[in-house]
Write a structure and sequence with these properties.
The complex is a heterodimer of chains A (404) and B (253). With 404 residues, chain A is an alpha+beta fold. Chain A folds into two domains: 2-51 and 253-401, no CATH class; 58-220, no CATH class. Helix content of chain A is 54%, strand content 19%. Chain A contains 14 helices and 14 strands. Chain A has helices at 2-11, 15-55, 78-87, 118-124, 149-155, 190-195, 201-208, 227-237, 246-249, 251-288, 291-299, 304-339, 367-394, 397-401, and strands at residues 58-61, 92-104, 107-116, 131-134, 144-147, 162-168, 174-185, 196-200, 216-219, 242-245, 342-343, 351-352, 355-356, 360-361. In chain A, the strands form three sheets. A six-stranded mixed β-barrel of chain A has the order 2-3-8-5-7-6, surrounded by four helices. Chain A has a two-stranded antiparallel sheet with strand order 11-14. A two-stranded antiparallel ribbon of chain A has the order 12-13. By secondary structure, chain B is of the alpha+beta class. Helices cover 20% and strands 43% of the residues of chain B. Chain B has a 13-stranded antiparallel sheet with strand order 6-5-4-3-2-1-13-12-11-10-9-8-7. In chain B, 25% of the residues are buried. Classes of the chains: A alpha+beta (404), B alpha+beta (253). The A-B interface holds A 72, 101, 103, 106, 108-110, 164, 166, 168, 170-174, 176-178 and B 55, 57-62, 85-86, 89, 100, 102, 104-105, 107, 109-112, 114-115, 118-119, 121-122.
Chain lengths: 404, 253
């Protein structure tokens, strides 16, 4: 207890130096906390936006479908797979897929027809809420289709326009149907924007004369379950099919998230190294100008460990003050950034690498975004103080007293 | 010594190169005649006819009855007459453009460039096959690979497309009958020289004054169990078509 009292008195013997050191530490904690919360928010947003829209946590395909997509390469047991996943609390959506042609007026384009169960799909993905004009699919409107943003532009269609849909039906006949544009999506991703036509599963079955199982099963994003845990569970339910996690489906996104995380850690490290130099300098000064004092302490019977404890107590008190100051400043800024966020303005809706940007960027505060910067600062200070503290602890009293 | 070796090697090279290209004027004329026979067989200045198209894939099998009108090599109109479900579905080809008319939705759709390589009416023929008007005599450089020993023999002719020819193949090999110079098999190789498809001709007969194969079966190399077979049921050549025949209005009728 005496050590603490002594340490507390010592740090206020040079108020200016202590203030500067504490301020530097506080800035480090504040900057790294806000920075990591912002980056975590950004990465989380990106992952959520990208995955919840269309990809999900993982997708299941019939073996061979992805190499050579064909309406005949389907999973006859897709409904059973979805039920089995449901029983485990994992929501999934069955999609029927076929390539074909859509035409309106003089314009035409190659498209992918996607048949889905509206209710089931809404539990898994948010694409149904991404309608820019008109409305999402409704089972009560079997002719209604929803088209991708760029496809709508290519075909020159608006809500209410007719689209001629052409394909190769499974009985060999020419599938042809007149669809009515019910909704136009906002930009959600390259493939859907350019070629996606969504329809209800029943409409798809009628159009393509198709009675088989789904071609694709999309698994809901599972924020609490890691991919390493999820994948074997999916494989157990659908052993004969091809299970692909979002990291396999969108390797670019995975790499980007990982490298951003790496960059975040690296930036924090740089900030902390700068702080370490400031702390080292301050502590060296604090120790060396009190060498005589330490000598007297030791002459009076204090051990090396006592001196070490004293110096560490002083440093940790300063860290404590810095963390408190940082907390006072961080609370309002993190509150603002996580609730209001940064308006992405002109960048909102811009599509890059097959993904679209959201409209605002919000920070996400997790235990990790708070604990990591504090831990890092404590670690850096502990290391920086080591040299002056050892020097003071190990000095011989006689030499210390005669130190000039 | 060195010069001597060089000249011998050079001489040998020239000899070999010369031999492979050796073509007497008589050969060249014969080759031309065979190629012309392929280019004009089953084609007149104009024609009208009925065909049955049988398609077999690993997933389904069906037969369509088609009525076909053509004028030169640039204009073709095909209307499905059976089965009832698709009756009236029609394809019009004028120059490089293809339109499909769909009676069920009563709409005409122009096939975009990006869809040209996809299947025409579910067959193993692509839209491109309809549009691409390559002629052996014009777009290929052909040489005899084999010549028949007798009247029952076969000519084997290898054709390499000329630069800039509207051809997707790397090589085409024609096996033609010695008796009437008509092809009984044409094999198509892709640009990597791998077999892409085989078209076999059979049931040779005189139709409307012309000798031709009445059955043409296309088999893709990667799916040997599948085929598309066109059987000429009735043909008339050099028919005068009305000006309205190859128009979008006619497509609907």
């Amino acid at each position: 207890m005496q050590t603490f009292r002594l340490a507390w008195r010592n740090i206020w013997r040079n108020k200016r130096r202590t203030s500067v050191t504490v301020a530097a530490m506080a800035v480090a904690v504040l900057v790294t906390t806000v920075y990591s919360s912002m980056v975590t928010g950004y990465l989380g947003n990106m992952e959520r936006d990208a995955l919840d829209l269309e990809v999900g946590a993982a997708e299941i395909f019939a073996a061979g479908y992805q190499d050579k997509p064909s309406v005949f390469t389907a999973m006859p047991d897709s409904a059973a797979v979805v039920r089995a996943l449901d029983a485990q609390g994992i929501a999934a959506s069955e999609r029927l897929l076929a390539a074909g042609l859509a035409s309106a007026g003089e314009a035409s384009a190659g498209v992918t027809f996607r048949g889905l169960n509206v209710e089931q799909d809404a539990r898994v993905l948010t694409i149904g809420r991404q309608v820019r004009e008109g409305e999402w699919l409704d089972p009560a409107d079997p002719r209604g289709v929803v088209v991708g943003s760029r496809l709508a532009k290519t075909l020159g269609v608006k809500v209410g326009s007719e689209i001629v849909m052409l394909g190769q039906a499974t009985d060999g006949s020419i599938a042809n149907e007149l669809g009515v544009v019910r909704g136009i999506l906002r930009s959600v991703g390259e493939a859907t924007d350019r070629s996606g036509i969504f329809m209800t599963q029943d409409a798809f079955r009628g159009f393509m004369a198709y009675a088989g199982g789904a071609h694709q099963i999309i698994i809901q994003r599972q924020p609490q379950v890691t991919l390493e845990l999820l994948e074997p569970r999916l494989e157990a339910v659908a052993p004969r099919h091809d299970v692909q996690t979002w990291r396999e489906l969108m390797p670019m996104l995975g790499t980007m998230l990982d490298s951003t995380k790496g960059l975040m850690a690296f930036m924090s490290l740089i900030v902390n190294i700068a702080i370490a130099i400031v702390v080292l300098n301050a502590m060296l000064m604090a120790v060396f100008e009190r060498i005589k004092e330490f000598g007297i302490l030791k002459a009076l019977g204090a051990g090396a460990l006592d001196v070490l404890k004293l110096i560490y107590a002083e440093s940790m008190m300063q860290v404590g003050l810095a963390v408190a100051a940082a907390a006072v400043l961080a609370v309002p800024s993190l509150w603002y950034l996580s609730v209001v966020g940064i308006d992405m303005g002109a960048l909102a809706g811009v599509s890059a690498m097959g993904l679209s940007m959201g409209s605002s960027w919000q920070a996400v505060v997790t235990p990790a975004t708070l604990i990591t910067p504090v831990t890092m600062t404590v670690a850096v200070v502990t290391l920086a103080v080591l040299y002056p503290a050892l020097k003071a602890a190990l000095i011989e009293p006689v030499r210390a007293i005669h130190h000039t | 010594m060195k010069r001597w070796t060089t000249s011998v090697v050079l001489g040998l090279v020239l000899l070999v190169a010369g031999a492979s290209h050796a073509q007497t004027p008589a050969d060249a004329a014969l080759l031309q005649q065979i190629l012309e026979a392929q280019d004009t067989s089953g084609r007149g200045a104009s024609s009208v006819g009925t065909m049955v198209m049988r398609i077999r894939t690993s997933n389904w099998e069906r037969a369509l009855t088609l009525k076909v009108w053509s004028e030169g090599t640039t204009k073709t109109l095909v209307v499905i007459e059976a089965p009832a479900k698709e009756k009236g579905t029609a394809t019009l080809k004028v120059d490089q453009n293809i339109w499909n008319y769909l009676p069920k939705v009563d709409r005409t759709v122009k096939i975009p460039g990006s869809m040209m390589s996809s299947s025409w009416m579910g067959s193993h023929l692509s839209n491109d096959d309809l549009v691409r008007e390559s002629r052996f005599a014009e777009h290929f450089r052909c040489t005899f690979a084999e010549k028949p020993a007798g009247a029952q023999g076969r000519y084997v002719i290898d054709c390499i497309p000329k630069p800039n020819a509207p051809v997707v193949w790397g090589k085409v090999r024609i096996r033609a009958r010695a008796e009437d110079k008509l092809a009984e098999e044409i094999t198509y190789y892709d640009e990597k020289n791998a077999l892409a498809r085989t078209v076999a001709f059979s049931d040779f007969a005189v139709v409307a004054g012309r000798k031709m194969a009445r059955v043409m079966r296309t088999r893709p190399a990667d799916k040997p169990d599948e085929f598309t077979e066109l059987q000429f049921v009735q043909m008339a050549f050099d028919v005068k078509h009305s000006e309205q025949t190859f128009t979008l209005q006619a497509l609907k009728r």
